[in-house]
């Protein structure tokens, strides 16, 4: 490999080549994709790299790209191929005048890569660190590193979610995460639960999912969240969950939810029995 500390700077990022890894540092300018700004940097061990490519880009540029082994990075696993080129954290765009230099670094990197390009047994690139949170259209999602919490918004949540109430999911009870980009139709974040074989087809009816929308659940917020949960599931999933005591709710929040529950009841969306049971549950949280 080239000398430790060699740096190749491109648009929005710079790659620093080290003896055992490539450290990617992202710029924080207003033109830098928000996902890059949130990530800050990514350290990619050589063991996680399957290959490197160099190809012509748009408008007088070339693109140097690291290809990772399947299963080496929770961010790419969560994205499941849905990231647009401009948001791919492993593409370095350079002016065409620097193609010779880029080819030199690509050759140097190829020369020291291992021969194992198969799936990685564990994540080799670190996941975004918890705690993380973001606002979806129908609720607020938060993750403390061990448990995912969904708190529903009365302005967006379906009656099915209001009936189910706010949700908490220890990672030990999850088998994975399904992320659908907010840049496509019906974007959402769905938690795949070990005890639920067939979740509702529509994410807005699933208490284990939050729905994205215009301005809600943007890629730079929801994707790092999904990646962090996915990494925790893979690392801690087999560990039995430790029950946590339920936090006390804000009385004003409880009153607002009871009011909304009453509206659903009057509209015929909640039965008398469901109304009584749910109201009692909410009052018990005070």
Automatic annotation (TrEMBL):
Residue ranges annotated for the SHOCT domain, each copy included: 256-283
Sequence ranges assigned to domain DUF4429 in this UniProt record: 15-109, 141-229
Transmembrane segments: none
Annotated Pfam families: DUF4429, SHOCT
Protein's organism: Streptomyces dysideae
Signal peptide location: none
Protein name as annotated: Tat pathway signal sequence domain protein
InterPro entries, alphabetized: DUF4429, SHOCT
